[in-house]
Amino acid sequence: MQFGIFTVSDVTEDPTNGSTPSENDRIKAIVAIAKKAEEVGLDVFALGEHHNPPFFSSSPTTTLAYIAAQTSTLQLSTSTTLITTNDPVKIAEDYAMLQHLADGRVDLMMGRGNTGPVYPWFGQDIREGIPLAIENYALLHRLWREDFVDWQGKYRTPLQGFQSTPRPLDGVPPFVWHGSIRSPEIAEQAAYYGDGFFANNIFWPKEHYMQLIGYYRQRFEHYGHGTAAQAIVGLGGQAFMAKNSQDAVAQFRPYFDNAPVYGHGPSMEDFTEMTPLTVGSPQQVIDRYAAMRDHFGDYQRQLFLMDHAGLPLKTVLEQLDILGEEVVPVLRKELAVNRPADVPDAPTHASLVAARDAAAPAETAEVK
Amino acid sequence: MTAKRIAVVAAGLSQPSSTRLLADRLAAATAGALGGAEVEVEVFELRDYATDVTNNLLTGFPSPRLATAIESITSADALIVVTPIFTTSYSGLFKSFIDVLDPQALTGMPVLLAATGGTERHSLAIDYAMRPLFSYLHASAVPTGVYAASGDWGNDSGLPQRIERAASELATAVGHAERRVRDPFALPEGFSPTGAFSAQ
Fold first, then answer.
1. Which chain B residues contact residue A134 at CB under 8 A?
2. Is B4-176 CATH 3.40.50.10710?
3. Which of A187, A58, A84, A80 has the alpha carbon at shortest distance from A137?
4. Using a CB-CB distance cutoff of 8 angstroms, which residues of chain A are in contact with residue B63?
5. Which of A122, A248, B84, B85 might form a disulfide with B122, Cβ 3.0–4.6 angstroms?
6. Is A191's Cβ below 8 Å from some Cβ in B?
7. Using CA atoms, how far apart are residues B7 and B3, in angstroms rounded to an integer?
8. What is the DSSP letter of A266?
């Protein structure tokens, strides 16, 4: 079971003092946050990709490579990589490059992006979002697995004998998650390839995701990648903690009330009841997240959103201390209890290389 | 035979409202027009859901109580909608409620369109504002819309006859409608996880 954090990379005013960090402040802060994640024992850091203000993260591989150079165990991922507006050829090359530099500590989460104007800026159309995600990923999948690719599709220039460079580290592509909030097509796509499915459930009630994840698990089994219980599931989460739960509530409320996504809408009390957002003591967060698998089944990756809505860096780092030192160690223990032995961990570069090597002699034997 | 369920959405803001009064008259007339059939009528006053609707617009998901109401409304056999006409069109609350529905949720739904207003001069709002909205949603709006101005409640302007005619049309539409409940997780026709191309 992996625990980590993911960020949307927003530059947001701190509602308690009206100050807005500069882009440079936030970019430097995100590096500090990632390093802190490793320091407090978290497994994963995932960075978003956006091409419009108020977000700063247009170039995730640059940032992740810089973080890779300053960490040694942290798994680097994305939340998400735009499979719609990016050229799959460039994704293949950028992330293979990152994979080499980070010694394999890299995976990706594919997402479509929901900002209409971004698509035409990159020559695309948001109404084609799903077909773009499907076709572009089909190409990306081949580029990482075949040395020379002939390709003709609807959304990019045809390729004849193209080889993306560098080739994936040890000949094993980075593991891919497909992120979705509501599209069964993306759950189907993840299931088809036997890839991971990350349900970003932080803004919506659990019932919706129980259905979506249930669907992905069922289709994962249908496509022969294992049993439904062995499908690779990731979940989002959101927490704000203090030793005394009333302090957490008082401290977080101005950030909640003015947050870009849900601010000025439901009360924090209603929202925490309806979504995974938990504001309170570390024990409350432990209780809430230890129960997630009761709804979604045993899963592989839990990512928390900790640094949005204008929270200052100092607060975020304090929150990561609590998360890493008080919450995650307990969750690791609790989620290991009664976890079936045949439910796999999230794939890593090492596990994928080992699986490839274990499969190779058998395939060779079949050929003979 | 199972009971026919008629959902009534009333967007009046005052309590009591003439919008609710018209809604109740239309529901009773429709139940009557369905003859001997067993009929269940459930009325939803949007005023009671105003905060939930606004929160849904902001967060993208309904509160549990709004979700229950939406489920009940969109799975009914027929729908009666009544809105006050404000500033030449349906009220903002009415439109906000429609906006939080899945655009496919009312496909094929027999709908009776009705409105209230202070003056007879807005009676065409049913046809130039409400009817296109429900056409877009692929609902089956019956031909007669019922508009009640304040004055209609106190003179012989044919309001009872219009109510009866519209109710009769809705009852007929219920008899003919074959609604399928849509599976929100159904994949689009012809969907392939690899698109038009083989993934190898």
1. 192-195
2. no
3. A84
4. 266, 270, 274
5. B85
6. yes
7. 13
8. S
- Taking contacts as CB-CB distances below 8 angstroms, the residues of chain B near A264 are 58
Domains and CATH numbers, chain A: 2-367 (3.20.20.30)
Domain ranges of chain B: 4-176
pLDDT digits (tens, 9 = 90+) for A179-199: 998 889 999 999 999 999 999
CB contact under 8 A, A265 and B58: yes
Contact between A225 and A217 (Cβ < 8 Å): no
Cα gap B195→B197, rounded to integer Å: 5
A188 and B200 within 8 Å at the Cβ level: the answer is: no
Q: Which residue has the tokens 């960075």?
A: A47
Q: Over the Cα atoms of chain A, what is R_g?
A: 20
**Cβ-defined contact of B59 to A264 (cutoff 8 Å):** no
Q: What is the pLDDT of residues A235-252, one digit of tens each?
A: 999 999 999 999 999 999
Nearest CA in chain B to A189: B193
Count the helix, strand and coil residues of chain B and give each as a percent rounded to the nearest 5.
45, 20, 35
- The full DSSP string for A149-174 is EEE--SSS--EEEE--SSPPGGG-PP
Search chain B and give the residue with CA nearest A137.
Answer: B194
CB A159 within 8 A of CB A142: no
Length of chain B: 200
A329 touches chain B (CB under 8 A): no
> Which residues does chain B have with pLDDT short of 50?
199-200
Beta-carbon contacts of residue A13 (< 8 Å; ≥ 6 apart): A19, A20, A258, A310
> Smallest Cα–Cα separation from A77: which of A100, A48, A54, A108?
A108
A contact residues 147-186, partner B, Cβ 8 Å cutoff: 151, 153-154, 184-185
What is the model's pTM?
Answer: 0.91
Tokens of A70: 């300053």
Distance between CA atoms of residues A354 and B147, nearest Å: 73
The two tokens of residue B160 are 């009872």
C-alpha distance across the termini of chain B, in Å:
52
